[in-house]
Amino acid sequence: MKAYFAGGCFWCVTPIYKIYGVDSVVCGYSGGDEVAPTYEDVKAQKTGHRETIELTYEPENVTFDKLLDIYFANVDPFDGEGQYIDKGFSYTLAIYYKTEEEREIAASRISALEAESGQKVQVALEPFKSFYPAEEEHQDYYLKNPEAFEKELIESGRKTI
Do residues 16 and 74 make contact, with C-beta atoms less than 8 angstroms apart? Predict the structure, then answer.
């Protein structure tokens, strides 16, 4: 199965899913109408796409509900401007659902988080339209550029020293 989450910088959210039994994580773009967007255009807010990850998983190993646990533990769901230092529409949060069951599960989680926190959750819940893989240099960035990745995590505020 596949799931699609926009969690801000796709470099930053990729490795955590691999720890929890996801078969693969592909960085890319979703949500907009432009065909085959580029990183430069998405980052410049020209396409209506968000940086998104495509998760391929086996439900017997990790459930959609568990994927949502991981997602909400690794984003700031109350920031409607982007994530950490990355601001702009392309860094805003979204769950792209493929089935009514996924939509219901995600909507329930969002409602529960709002009730628990007393704050409005800034996660778009949208039907999946398309996914375009990002350029190769963005795939597994944390493995290809470990020092730069570590610096990104710290400077963004996602990781404290």
Answer: yes
Q: What is the DSSP letter of 92?
A: S
Q: What share of the chain is helix, strand, coil (3-state, %, to 5)?
A: 40, 25, 35
Q: How far apart are CA 2 and CA 154, in angstroms?
A: 29
Tokens 């430069």 correspond to 40
Cα 142 from chain centre: 15
- Domains annotated on the chain, with CATH: 2-156 (3.30.1060.10)
Residue type present at position 160: T
Q: Residues 61-115: pLDDT tens digits? A: 999 999 999 999 999 999 999 998 899 999 999 999 999 999 999 999 999 999 9
What is the C-alpha separation between 26 and 134, in angstroms, rounded?
8
How far from the centroid of its chain's Cα atoms is residue 154's Cα? 18
Torsional class of 75: left (φ above 0), alpha (ψ -120 to 50), beta (otherwise): beta
* Catalytic (active-site) positions: 9
